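hey can u check if this looks right to u? its 804 residues, i copy pasted from the old doc so theres a chance i mangled smth
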Amino acid sequence: MTGKRVNVMWFEELTRGDVALVGGKNSSLGEMVRQLGQKGIRVPSGFATTADAYRTFLTANGLDARIDDVIGQWQDHRITLHEAGSRVRAMILAGNWPAGIEADILQSYRDLSARAGVADLPVAVRSSATAEDLPDASFAGQQETYLNVRGEKAVLTACQRCYASLFTDRAISYRQMKGFGHAKVALSIGVQRMVRSDTGGSGVMFSIDTESGFDRIALINAAWGLGENVVQGAVNPDEYQVYKPFLDARDVTPIVGKRLGAKEIKMIYANREGGETRNVPTSKAERAAWVLSDAEILELARMAVTIETHYGQPMDMEWARDGDTGELFIVQARPETVQSRADAGAIKSYTVRKAGKTLLSGLSVGSAVAAGRVCIIESARDIDRFVDGSILVTSTTDPDWVPIMKRASAIVTDHGGRTSHAAIVSRELGLPAIVGTGTATQILHDEQEVTVSCAGGGEGVIFEGIAQIDVEDLRIDDLPKTRTQIMLNMANPSAAFRWWRLPCDGVGLARMEFVINNAIKVHPMALVHFDRLKDQAAKAEIARMTKGYTDKTGFFVDNLARGLSQIAAAVYPRPVIVRMSDFKTNEYAELLGGREFEPHEENPMIGLRGASRYYSPQYEEGFALECRAILRLRKEMGFDNVVVMIPFCRTPIEADRVLQVMEKHGLKRGVDGLEVYVMGEIPANVILAEDFARRFDGFSIGSNDLTQLTLGVDRDSEELAALFDESDPAVLWMIESLIARAHKAGAKVGLCGQAPSNDPAFAGLLVKAGIDSISVSPDSFVAVKRHVARAEGVAGPGNAVPKG
């Protein structure tokens, strides 16, 4: 750096150690330009003013003591925050540029324009505070950014406005809350070539799952146009999730989550001459289309991994795609400040009981639950009327809202995604938030009592009334080791990442029908035979849901594979046993278009269900779609930890027929390591255990159906409830016999059910019988692990073994 350049430094001269000189944002840009360009990370070129230049500007204009005086008056409660911020900003905007700083900024801008070969190059002018993006503070959007700035005079004006933005009300309040001295924080300005994302797209990306802290997921949000709408939460963006460990394998596509956002507006240049941006409505085609192709999603995720690996910590990044060249750029990168610092030894589990009706839903932020009265605030001008402890409901938030966000019990917004300002600040404050509801400000009303629940996974729900909220702290850092494997029962893919820290041995039961019922909602045969559907209303709804699919069956396969992949990713490489669909005919009929394909049965519980459907002419084409989804999951997405399980298989001959159909559709037991299990839930599975063991790799005991069919008790009958007992000697004989005979034949045996968590003695009986694994709901895992350890005689913290 020459003497002339003391006020300005090019990005390529900077490293991440230069935070005190140019702030966190600019030092990070410099680090990436210097170190990661050769690794495929494209960063738009630019330069940064230094903290020294900022301090020189204040001193030259006699502002240091004047600013201290105004801030002191506010801290002494002699003036309001708004008055203090307004006065300081006016002082800075009225200042004059010292000649040397002005000359350096203008010369650097001319040089940047010359590098690009464009006169008066359009640039982004971004603030970068020297206390910014520290490990325990996100400083999300505290200072201003100006886009499409063009011309020397416009650049100087934008730079001065950046200096003034160090004293916005939100920035002053946030520094005070975090304990940063106002005079000790300086401001650097980054002047960076604009990426033409106004005609392309842009968004935000995290190298970690923002809600669960799952460190093997990259989360990407995307919208059309410039990125400010995504950052500020003014738009509901597309959302993509990628499983990072498979990114080096170029023959798989590990995109485990895709959610189409509404993307109602986009930010574009107001004119080609520069200086302005504006929001315009998106077209119907843009709203219906994904912003990113699968190849672009994977390219961004690989960039996230490269940046995370270089920095050695989870990162929060902003990206942009140039509409002219199609190139993807990283325009910001900073440390993730919430999940990476969470207590890895504890999981807080929330359960909502006695909830009222569902009022609306959106994307959940965090996993907490809160109940209280609604306070709708439409504009930052009205924040003074916010009632402390209320549930803040608004269209969207920006940094001006932070002072009241920290006084809320929960936050609900109409717009925004998981990387929006509202989501980032809620996460940092530890508040439950539901963003992107679409209509919260229209449906809810002031003083209405509601419960805001983020406990159910990716979808957050607002219930009417004050529900009962149970909270449990699960310590997982002192669990004993057990011989018996303890696995999880899972149904909801969006909740799978919540439990990634549990030291489980895999997933013993992944319920395919939950994904079909909640993510697909359409009967598979209605997709196979869409053209012959007679129900016109159902046909129209299916057409709407599957828009963009020339082959309607692709909708089923895509969504089923993607949903199950989230469960598979949560525990990889440990096994995930996926039970093929086990709806009864009356349940299948409730799927969209289903009534035309299902018979009426007097007793669906023992009717056309499970294995008998899979080779039946009434459903084999539907089963073929399930097989295609499993094949995609294992081969195209890379999740070879998936095990297939066949439910309600009545006879060995039926088993042979199902295995033949599976092989016909690409799933052959033993090929590419594919294991196939069978549910042990019919007395015939026990009586003919050796025959079934020759056809399957293992059994999973379904204690509900096995109890029902052994005792002849309808498990849904209130009158017979007292007779339904999984610990009945006849049922226990069945379980013990199946374990012994299956082991003798070389097959593994597990049990999936709640009995071991509700009854420690039952867990002891299973252990004594030599069961290989027990699969339970995630919130029961810790208790069952301890029950089993005691039964095995394993000592450990909080796990004393009884004497005698």
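Residues 373 and 447 are 5 Å apart (CA to CA).
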